[in-house]
Write a structure and sequence with these properties.
The protein has about 90 residues and is an alpha+beta fold. The protein folds into two domains: about 1-40; about 40-88, Roll (SH3 type barrels), CATH 2.30.30.60. The protein is about 40% helix and about 30% strand. The chain has a five-stranded antiparallel sheet, covered by helices on one side. A hairpin with a 5-residue loop joins β3 and β4. The mean pLDDT is about 90. This is Preprotein translocase subunit YajC. Belongs to the YajC family. One of its GO terms (biological process) is protein transport.
């Protein structure tokens, strides 16, 4: 019983650490992976570097992005930060 009383605060700290920090980060990473895997031609996106572009072509690991002046750039699929919705 004495061991349980000694370990209880440590176990509680580990549980709180997981609930507050690790679990939300895992959820966010899952959402980002799903968003990046669901990219389609015509989606308006913002890259991690802040480039605003439209997806011109989708490959397995990369994207061809078209910027406003008509230039086409190839980016890694993982560099997409978010998909811009029509009301943004």
């Amino acid at each position: 019983m004495e061991i349980l009383g000694t370990l209880a605060p440590i176990l509680l700290f580990i549980l709180l650490f997981w609930l507050i920090l690790i679990r939300p980060q895992q959820k966010r990473q899952k959402q980002v992976r799903e968003m990046q895997s669901n990219l389609q031609k015509g989606d308006r996106i913002i890259t991690i570097g802040g480039l605003h572009a439209t997806v011109h072509a989708v490959d397995e690991g990369s994207l061809v992005l078209e910027v406003n002046d008509g230039n086409k750039l190839t980016y890694d699929r993982n560099s997409v930060r978010e998909v811009v919705t029509s009301n943004d």
